[in-house]
Amino acid sequence: MGKSKQTGNHKNDKMKNIAKKWKTKRRTKDLDQIHSDMKPETAAKLLHQEVDLDVTGCAQHYCLHCARYFVDMRALKEHFKTKVHKKRLKQLREEPYTQAEAERAAGMGSYIAPKAVNVTTQPVEEDMD
Ligand SMILES: [Zn+2]
Fold first, then answer.
1. Which residues contact 33 (CB under 8 A, 6 or more apart)?
2. How far is ligand 1, taken at its centre, from the CA of residue 100, in Å?
3. pLDDT class for 12, splitting at 50, 70, 90?
4. Listed residue (65, 60, 58) closest to 79, CA to CA
5. Which of 4, 57, 63, 90 has its CA 20 to 30 A from that of 111?
6. According to the model, what pLDDT value does residue 28 have?
7. Structural domain count, the chain
8. Does 66 fall in a domain?
9. pLDDT per position as a tens digit, 60-72
10. What is the share, in percent, of the chain residues with pLDDT greater than 70?
11. Residue 45 is part of which domain span?
12. CA of 21 to the centre of ligand 1 (A)
């Protein structure tokens, strides 16, 4: 009987890994965007959005610093206790790299000590239960 020259095609196994590479993480806002969101007037708007049924929790429970929506006040409060949120606050305390800072670094203009950014968790309404 004739011999088959075809051997097993193990190369196909590699294809599975490629699919994983194409998957990208869902992008959230950049830190500098969040810094601008933290301006009082912007923050007020974000924290008091109109009811949007397409958004998690109808856009009523928003974490300003993580740019995330939560289903309810309890979920939001729980989120404030998490590592992700605390890590984010820490990141946000470092002042964003501004144009003024770039100029200072380049020796243009006088040196101004970077101001400390005070970042605290947004206040939440208590007595929800
Ligand atoms: Zn958060």
1. 67
2. 28
3. low
4. 65
5. 90
6. 75
7. 1
8. yes
9. 999 999 999 999 9
10. 60
11. 28-105
12. 28
